[in-house]
Amino acid sequence: MKFGTKAIHAGVHPDPTTGAIMTPIYQTSTYVQRSPGDHKGFEYSRTHNPTRTQLQDALAALDNGKHGLAFASGMAAIDCIVKLLQPGDEVISTNDLYGGSYRLFTKVYATYGIKFHFVPMHDMTAVEAAVTDKTKLIWVETPTNPLLNVIDIAAASAVAKKAGALLVVDNTFSTPYLQTPLELGADMVMYSLTKYMAGHSDTVMGAVVVNDDELHERLSFFQNACGGTPGPQDCFLVLRGLKTLHIRMQRHCENGRKVAEYLKAHPKVEKVFWPGFADHPNHDVAAKQMNDFGGMISFVLQGDRKEDAIAVLEKFQLFSLAESLGGVESLSGHPATMTHASIPAEARKAAGLSDSLIRLSVGIEDAEDLIEDLKQAIG
Ligand code: P1T
Predict the structure, then answer these.
(1) Does ligand 1 lie within 6 Å of residue 323's CB atom?
(2) Ligand 1 neighbourhood includes 145 CB (under 6 angstroms)
(3) Inter-helix orientation angle 245-265/367-378, to 10°
(4) % of the chain residues with pLDDT over 70
(5) In this chain, where does the modification N6-(pyridoxal phosphate)lysine occur (predicted)?
(6) Predicted local confidence at residue 145, as pLDDT
(7) What is the pLDDT of residue 158?
């Protein structure tokens, strides 16, 4: 089945009692049993809920994976993955990643005795150098948030396999419309569903997709035992969002290209970060592992001054200044003070994240209007 057909049909089926074509919101915490243990597969909604089951099946199908697991947020999904580790284990993570992931790693799990190495991953040299006999997990985000660095998933998988470590790809920026990491050798794909997957800035959720049965069992145990599960209404909203994922992503990519090209040609813009440019580092890897280049763009103005960036952010009319990304509407952000403020200034600097960086999530409005907004804001 092709992607667009799967986005609409995979994992979901008409309600057996009424024929309702849309997955009902099973707003229930529990399920009646005829006799202890004699039930219809559902005991308690933290463990299983039919709306969530259909979403999990849809997510697995979109990534060409076997098992999907949904969580109350992207962070809850990451939290569940890190729970696979033990004190003394080591993780190698990209040094350019969502600030909340960095915060969870360094402020929570590092205090439990797990060691994190943050390294650049434009090639695998630094990753290979960081491998020890304690390396258990390699954490990749590609393209990265917010610098849009592209990491070679197949190359990372080769390093992980040699090290005997699991490879996770945070696929939030790409979605399975643009890339399917399990097919490139990743063991787990992780999402903030809050973003492109749900697509309408109306819910916070996360997910993990895997192929391996045993890994699925371990993650399901933590999903239930720790309880970071989503409610059925949120699952319904993501199911609805997924039905248009392919159409939205197509337009995000088209608009992303137009905005990136406009910014690149602008005399007041010093640098534009977008993997679709032929001179973007690892553009060839992006062209190989992605179907298109996405709608996330970061840029710095000439002179690289924070106050100039803030002045532009304050002038935007259509690019609303807000955290998050991947919704139908365009958003702008200032990573240094917003989404990445929890990364210490030194670590941000080392990763190349300047205090004047502006991040755009290009929505699916008419591109001409978006460009008009950039024109009036940048001048
Ligand atoms: O916000 P939540 O659904 O918990 O997902 C966390 C998360 C994980 N991974 C990536 C790549 C992300 O971008 C995020 C959340 N990011 C933002 C809120 C943001 O504006 O960048």
Answers:
(1) yes
(2) yes
(3) 40
(4) 100
(5) 195
(6) 97
(7) 98
**Which position has the token pair 């800035």?**
201
Q: Which atom in ligand 1 lies closest to the alpha carbon of residue 97? A: 11
Q: Are residues 138 and 84 in the same domain?
A: yes
pTM attached to this predicted model:
0.98
Helix (H) or strand (E) holding 102: helix 99-103
Same domain, 345 and 368: yes
Whether residue 195 lies in the annotated active site: yes
Distance 363 CA to ligand 1 centre (A): 17
Number of domains in the chain: 2
C-alpha torsion sign, points 356, 357, 361, 367: positive
Residue 187 belongs to domain with CATH number: 3.40.640.10
Domain boundary among 242, 264, 297: 242
Residues paired with 313 in a beta bridge: none
Identify whether residues 189 and 333 lie together within a single domain. no
Same domain, 284 and 361: yes
The answer, yes or no, to whether any atom of ligand 1 lies below 6 A from the CB of 335, is no
pLDDT digits (tens, 9 = 90+) for 254-304: 999 999 999 999 999 999 999 999 999 999 999 999 999 999 999 999 999
Place of tokens 């996770």: 168
Active-site residue flag, 191:
no
Q: Which domain holds residue 59?
A: 3-242
Question: 98 CA to middle of ligand 1, Å?
Answer: 6
Whether the CB of 100 sits within 6 Å of ligand 1: yes
pLDDT tens digit sequence for 13-45: 999 999 999 999 999 999 999 999 999 999 999
- Give the chain's residues under pLDDT 50: none
For tokens 């597969």, the residue is 41
